[in-house]
Amino acid sequence: MAVPRSGTLLSALLALLLVATGTAFGLTFDAQLDWHQRDSVNAAVTDLSLSGTDEGHRVVADLRVGNPLDRPIELTTVRLLVFEGDPPPETGDRLSVPRTATVERVTLGAGETRTLRVEADVHDDDVDRTRRALAAGDASSRGQLTARMAGEEFDIRVE
Predict the structure, then answer these.
(1) Collapsing DSSP states into helix, strand and coil, what is residue 52?
(2) 26: domain range?
(3) How many CA atoms lie within 13 A of 107 on its CB side?
(4) 5/45 same-domain check
(5) Does one domain contain both 2 and 60?
(6) Would you tell me which of 26, 121, 123, 130 could form a disulfide with 95, CB atoms 3.0–4.6 Å apart?
(7) 93 and 129 assigned to the same domain
(8) What is the pLDDT of residues 10-55, one digit of tens each?
(9) What is the model's pTM?
(10) SS in 3 state form for 89-132?
(11) Judgement on whether residues 5 and 63 belong to the same structural domain of the protein
């Protein structure tokens, strides 16, 4: 007995629908899994120094960022505070000016680790104290790096 042509067409359409649904589910699940693992992206300051130009003094921080995820992330902004002593910083401990840190926008590939340069302003009155704290190893830093993955932003704690 021959299968009617409409039955073959219906079977083919059903198979196509199942494949499309499975593919969409797989892609969505993969993106969700990476999103839930975003906390595994890490950032740490590896070196602090002081630079001076005609425009003023800045604390320069080498920031090592690791992306263990299976997809790239874009690093967009940074909030970094350099201070004297142990965390948490108090107002009088600040060496860098809050909200002046800058970082280049960069895309960090899947599985990539890179060192970025972050700079933050230092008030003229704090240059000598900053220089002494850096030389004595008494300078610390804390902050957040903002990243974007699959159109969504998230923050990475900087230690």
Answers:
(1) strand
(2) 1-36
(3) 6
(4) no
(5) no
(6) 130
(7) yes
(8) 777 777 777 777 666 555 545 555 555 667 899 999 999 999 887 8
(9) 0.74
(10) CCHHHECCCCCCCECCCEEECCCCEEEEEEEEEECHHHHHHHHH
(11) no
